[in-house]
Design a protein that fits this description.
Blueprint: E1 2-5, H1 10-22, E2 27-31, E3 51-55, H2 61-71, E4 75-78, H3 85-90, H4 93-115, H5 119-124, E5 126-132, H6 157-176, E6 180-185, E7 187-189, H7 198-207, E8 212-215, E9 221-226, H8 227-240, E10 246-249, E11 254-256, H9 257-271, E12 284-287, H10 302-308, H11 316-329, H12 331-338, H13 341-350
Parallel strand pairs: 1-2, 1-4, 2-3, 4-5, 5-6, 6-10, 7-9, 8-12
Antiparallel strand pairs: 9-11
Helix pairs in contact: 1-8, 2-4, 4-6, 7-9, 9-11
The structure holds nicotinamide-adenine-dinucleotide (NAD) and thymidine-5'-diphosphate (TYD).
The site of nicotinamide-adenine-dinucleotide (NAD) has 30 residues, from helix 1, strand 2, helix 4, strand 5 and strand 7.
Amino acid sequence: MILVTGGAGFIGGNFVLDWLAQYDEPIVNLDRLTYAGNLETLQSLDGDSRHIFVHGDIGDGPLVDALLATHRPRAIVHFAAESHVDRSLHGPEDFIHTNVTGTFRLLESVRRYFGGLSDGERSLFRFLHVSTDEVFGSLAPGAAPFTETSTYEPNSPYSASKAASDHLVRAWHFSYGVPTLITHCSNNYGPYHFPEKLIPLVILNALAGKGLPIYGDGLQVRDWLYVKDHCAAIRRVLEAGTPGEAYNIGGWNEKPNIEVVRTLCHHLDRFRPRTDGKLYEAQIRYVTDRPGHDRRYAIDAGKLYRELGWRPVETFDSGLEKTVRWYLDHSQWVENVTSGAYRQWVQRHYGS
Ligand code: NAD
Ligand code: TYD
């Protein structure tokens, strides 16, 4: 049995689905179901006794203590977080609540649980903390990609809160002996992605005939990884990573935002051409830049490849094509997401 936090979100949801497609080992899935948590993603697991969903907060110590005591997981994979940079600029407090205080309280529950395990159970137990490349800050063009030992230089409330949680995880390893693993992944994309992030937002706006908002000059660079490759990397680190170590996960896919958006438009032109015969690129709109917008992220995932043999399966083109097709084929999922809180958020953020 493993415990997953945030398993109703984008990456956690994909992780739960992929895990149970491959293994019979059950998952307890603890999720608070914020705006980003969507149980419809896990609909195919309805009635599957290997998936135990628990609605709750990672910061609820008594609840987490009880879950650990009841289910006695051999590992915890910690995805739960507030994850959207733009939201962190509008309201940073939720990010401190979940990413910092929530992770702290979770670690305290884990420390209590770990202390009560037998020697054999302790040697097998792992706490895997899912972090981001954004904790390392922004790279100049041509600068070497981030490694696991790059300096922490977070620039947004989101990345600062993730950096704080990384430090707590590291300290709980060195101070209390909890066998932790930290992963730093680049930008993910793929199925079940909440449409406030660039790639799903652009696909859905394009289909709805709306503008495709490009912040600033659109030349900010991100490294993009297909979400299922990220899930495979996490499984590999969980299986063979060394406690106390951090591992970078990346797609070797650095792209400027404008190129990502143009490629998405190209796939949409092929699969669902506009009825007026024009190209989707005509919907691109340059809008005011995000404050403190990091210019470039790039990740060196060489350690994970050398030590644990992981490499992504998807190329940027194959992953993006799959993603566009997925959104075209899952209009019901999309419709149910877009009819909820998401709409109010878009109104507030892009309203003017
Ligand atoms: P997401 O926002 O889609 O999902 C987060 C999930 O956590 C949601 O289901 C939400 O309900 C749940 N949650 C939030 N607060 C909670 C709380 N207090 N208690 C319990 N559950 C809570 O996020 P995501 O994109 O799936 O990201 C998952 C993790 O991966 C995050 O830690 C994020 O920092 C990290 N990460 C994301 C990316 C990316 O590109 N999306 C890249 C690298 C790392
Ligand atoms: P996002 O998907 O929010 O991820 P992150 O901020 O974690 O990298 O944004 C990816 C890039 O796309 C980032 O440089 C901001 C940019 N962006 C836009 O240009 N327009 C948009 O509407 C959004 C949401 C993002």
